[in-house]
Amino acid sequence: MPFDLSAYLARTGLAVAPPPTAEGLALLQRAHRLTIPFENLDVILGRGIAIDSDSVFAKLVTARRGGYCFEQNRLFGDALDALGFVARPLLARVWLGIQGPPPPKTHTLSLVTIDGQCWIADAGFGGSYAPPMPLAEGETADAPDGARFRLMRDPLHGWMLERDGDPATTDGRGGGTGWQPQYSFSLDPVFTNDLILSNHWTSTAPDSRFRNVRIASIVLPQGFASLTDAAYRRRNGDKEASGEIGDPRVYRMRLSLLFGIDLAAEDVAALGLFPAA
C-alpha cells in the first residue's frame, strides 16, 4: 500500500511535514525516537518479526507498538522517501558493551544524501540516542541527553561511531570514560535480502541478545529511559531513577505509561520474568 505520511506524522507528533533538509532530517529522527519505543518483546514471545513496509507500518503506526532496528529504520526509511529525501540502508556491527571478536551485522541505519553531502541517520538504535551526523572524519554531534558522538574512519570496518557520555543515558550497556565504540559500518550497498538475513539471525539465533534479554527503551527530551529485563533506568536532565521491578503488574504499568507499549497480562507472564503466582 502507499505510505500513509499523514498517519506517520500523527504518530510522531509532527503537525507539519519536515522539509528534505539537514534540519528536517534532525527534526524527523528526533520526533520518531521521542514517540515510537524501541522494543524486542515480540521476539521473546515467539512472534515472527516481519520487516516489509506494510507489516512494519501496521505494527508501529496503526497498532502503536514499538520495534527494533530493522522495523524502526524500515519505517523511518519509508518516511524519508515519502518526504523527498534520498536515502538507503546500511548494515552495522554493534560494539557497545562488547568485548571480544567482531560482532555480526545486527543493526541497520540510513545513509541520507542532502545537497551532495552524505549524512548518517538512525531512528532505530535502542541503546542510546545519536543525532544525524554528516559523514566526515572527526565529525562530532551533541545529543540532548549530554552525550557526544564522533565519527572516525576504521581501517577494518569502514567507519566507527563513537560515544562519550553518561552510561545512565544508555540501556545499561554503556561504561567506561571517554570515547567508546558504539557501532561500525561500511558504505557497501545493502539489499532487501541482506536485511532479511540479518533480521532473521537477530530474531532467531540462540546467541542473539534479542533472544535472551527483554528490552524496551525510549528517548526523553533531555535523557533516556530503558527497561532491560526487570531493571528500570530513567534519566531526564538532572532527574534519575533506577531499580528492579518485582511485580508483573508494575512491569506492565511501566511498559504502558512510559514506553507506550500495551501488553496483555498473559503476554507479560509469557515473557518469563516473574515466577508464576
Protein model, in words:
There is one protein chain. By secondary structure, the protein is of the alpha+beta class. It has a single domain (5-210), classed as 2-Layer Sandwich (Arylamine N-acetyltransferase fold), CATH 3.30.2140.20. Helix content is 29%, strand content 27%. The chain contains eight helices and 13 strands. The protein has an eight-stranded antiparallel sheet. A five-stranded antiparallel sheet has the order 1-10-11-12-13. The radius of gyration is 18 Å and the shape is globular. The mean pLDDT is 96.
CATH class: Alpha Beta
Classify the secondary structure makeup into a structural class.
alpha+beta
Strand-residue proportion: 25-35%
The overall pLDDT average reads: 96
Largest sheet: 8 strands, antiparallel
Overall geometry comes to: globular
> Strand sequence of the main sheet, in spatial order?
5-4-3-2-9-8-7-6
Helix content: 25-40%
- CATH fold name, please? Arylamine N-acetyltransferase fold
Write out key terms for the chains shown:
Arylamine N-acetyltransferase fold; 29% helix; 8-stranded antiparallel beta sheet; 5-stranded antiparallel beta sheet; 277 residues; 27% strand; 8 helices; single chain; alpha+beta; 13 strands
Q: Can you give me a brief rundown of this structure?
A:
By secondary structure, this protein is α+β, with helices and mostly antiparallel strands.
Give the helices and strands, then pairings.
Elements (H helix, E strand, L loop, with lengths): L4 H7 L10 H14 L2 E2 L1 H4 L8 H10 L6 H14 L3 E9 L10 E10 L2 E5 L11 E2 L5 E3 L5 E7 L3 E7 L15 E6 L6 H13 L10 E6 L2 E6 L2 E6 L2 E6 L3 H12 L5 H6 L7
